[in-house]
Design goal:
mainly alpha, Four Helix Bundle (Hemerythrin (Met), subunit A), 7% strand, 6 helices, two-stranded antiparallel sheet
Length: 200
Amino acid sequence: MPEQAAEIHTIDNEPLAPESAQALEYLRTGAAKMNVHGLRERVRAAAQELENALDGVTETAARARPFAGKWTVAEVVDHIAQTQIRSAEELRHLLAGRRPPGPPVYEALRSGAAAWVPWAELVDGLRSANRELVALLETVADEAAVPAGATARAILVINREGHATPQIFAVELGWKEYALVQRLHLIEHRNQIKKLKEAV
């Protein structure tokens, strides 16, 4: 049985805020309604939109930090690349009917690459990771062929109206819900990149 919002608490042991409960409900109902083709195309479109948002970003702009204490564009790109490749591996286990081994993909996952790897190489890594995730979803011809029951522990980060910090909580997700989270993650960081570009 999927966890209900009332059963889940944040890392600070708080009940879920309305925004968090709504996000969880969207994942549950949205994934259940979506067919494999629709899900795959939404993930593909979100990946393409994020990549398009990087157009025109220079090496200098990628390293600029217009907001103190916040990530640069290069750090966002590194985060997405690192997250996507780990998420693709976890999704591969879910599609095989297995629970992914090891720790979940934590919310601030990054490498040291953003500090020194050339910008073009960082972008290539992001595109490669995006392609890996979409290609994996392309292997699912029929939802009925995916063994049921396997879940992955996912860490969700939900922004709240009127709060400076988001809510962070862990939840168990099936493969369609897990894939839908990747779409939302891409959209969130696409918007972040746009704000950073405008500020720079």
